[in-house]
Amino acid sequence: MSHKMYMQRCIQIAKNGLGQSRPNPMVGCVIVCNEKIIGEGFTSPYGGPHAEVNAIKSVKDKELLKNAVIYVTLEPCSHYGKTPPCANLIVEHKIPTVVIGTMDPFSKVAGKGIQILKDAGCSVTVGVLEDSCREHHKRFLTFHGKKRPFILLKWAETQDGFMDIYRKETAIEDAKPNWITNSYSRQYVHKLRAEEQAIFVGTNTVINDNPALNVRTWSGQNPVRIVLDKTLRIPLNYEVLDDKVKTIVFTESNRKDSKLTRYKKIDFSDNLVLAICEVLYQENIQSVLIEGGKKTLQSFIDANIWDEAAVFVGASNFGKGIKAPVFHGAIISTLSFGKDVLKKYKNRC
Question: For this structure, is 92 an active site residue?
Fold first, then answer.
């Protein structure tokens, strides 16, 4: 029996929960009896059943569970939340062998699920394909381990390293992005938006581009919009303040919250990035796509508070303008969209 083979299948099906299960982790679960898969499941959208529940439910002959092995990417939960504990469910169905990818750092679990299983007489193996499982659960693990959201930086730059032209202030009706990449790259950006819980931009990006910051050319949930606006310069008729999507505005000024837009006062003069991350942690935001301009992106880089970067390199040259951020990361993949190239990096620290 190959534990690795079945755990790889767990990771594969777990990805069905990407962008849907948060703030719960997107767990994958496979149940095997006599080297045959008899049940599978992944985490339902938040509030619904967990992966283990869905996998056990999918088994037609429940008597087989007494001789089965259950594989799961993350330690089964041990506490009551929206649903009962999955560790207790495994014990209830008398599944004798449990194989776990990695432990759950969440304080209400953190080894307690494993202990419940062992106390009930289950044979428990932990750490199968652990690196792959930790990579899969990187958002959840970063949030609970580092007490901040997982940070994905994103920008587009030209062949000669510019991310925008120099601009003068324009009228609202003239505010629009200056595209560097093609339509395929821009569609992929909407895929990234659907995968992360929130999207973050600075004041100048909003004023120059008037972006909606939603998901339009991909299937998925709109991310929570997070906007920096120290002195509330963004006009109220701009799209980020349209009250159609949950929005958090960081500011030093006073303004009443509206239906879906909340104003958070913070100190912009000292450790701004840390202050932002602390609030987002309190708001249970587990991952953020930083789509801001040079200043916003560079502030996270300089503070060394970022995990990955997605850099789109277009086919054009500007010759002059606003230079792309300066950073140092380990390249992990490249992907082509026609003449555009997407380079993904990981923070070395």
Answer: no
